[in-house]
Design a protein that fits this description.
Oligomer: single chain
CATH topology: Rossmann fold
Helix content: 25-40%
CATH superfamily: Cobalamin-binding domain
Number of domains: 1
Strand order of the largest sheet: 2-1-3-4-5
Order of helices and strands: EHEHEHHEHEH
CATH architecture: 3-Layer(aba) Sandwich
Shape: globular
CATH class: Alpha Beta
Bound molecules: cobalamin
Number of helices: 6
Number of strands: 5
Radius of gyration: 14 Å
């Protein structure tokens, strides 16, 4: 792995009343191993807590996880809250975003329409999200770290 001269900070958490913790634990480890400073807010994080943490830590990315099927309700107005707080960060969301989801492309479009820069399903390899974030933040990678980004 290439040592980065400056750490880049990402805020990570599970939004709403959702208590599924395993996914963000894995994401925290993967993003940390990739050289990011990860502020893990844990489960049952409110929209305001994401915004406050992003400002407090000058985060360049806000990574939202949702597993229990209520992401749409929990994320309604999220980008207004971020904007109101003055957050200037890339936003990603991932997990099981809809109940009985048949067509993920519909879900992707729905959440992109809500303001998320990238939308990931629950089959996403953390390395894919890391590659996407490096690309979005224009962080150089070595050839060996480069993986295909389909999103
Ligand atoms: C363990 C589990 C629980 C445990 C959670 C324990 C804990 N504290 O974590 C308990 C028993 C408490 C639980 C409760 C519930 N659960 Co549950 N649970 C699961 C289960 C079996 C595994 C989840 C898990 O840990 N997976 C392993 C991790 C590594 O994978 P992951 O969570 O998917 O995360 C990865 C990816 O999704 C992705 N990812 C996730 N977030 C993000 C964010 C970004 C930005 C990116 C890039 C990627 C990404 O990367 C992660 C790492 O690889 C899943 C079924 C399943 N097989 O997924 C159901 C499941 C998530 N649960 C479900 C439900 C419905 C519930 C309950 C509502 C049930 C109920 N009626 O009470 C409650 C909700 C309680 C609450 N308030 O959250 C449903 C959700 C349905 C939906 N969304 O359509 C699932 C899918 C089961 C099912 N098939 O119905 N659950």
């Amino acid at each position: 792995m290439v040592p980065h001269t400056m750490s880049r900070t990402v805020v990570l958490g599970v939004i709403g009343s959702d208590a599924h913790v395993v996914g963000i634990t894995i994401l925290e480890q993967a993003f940390s191993a990739a050289g990011f400073d990860v502020i893990n807010l844990g489960v049952q994080t409110s929209q305001e807590e994401f915004a406050e943490a992003a400002i407090a830590h000058d985060a360049e990315a806000v990574l939202v996880s949702s597993l229990y099927g209520h992401a749409e309700q929990d994320c309604r107005g999220f980008h207004d809250v971020l904007e109101g707080a003055g957050v200037d960060a890339v936003t990603y969301i991932g997990g099981n975003l809809a109940v009985g989801q048949n067509d993920f492309e519909e879900t992707r479009e729905q959440f992109e329409g809500m303001g998320f820069d990238r939308v990931f399903d629950s089959e996403t390899d953390p390395e894919e999200a890391i590659a996407a974030l490096r690309r979005d933040l224009q962080i150089a990678t070595t050839e060996s770290e480069r993986v295909t980004v389909n999103t």
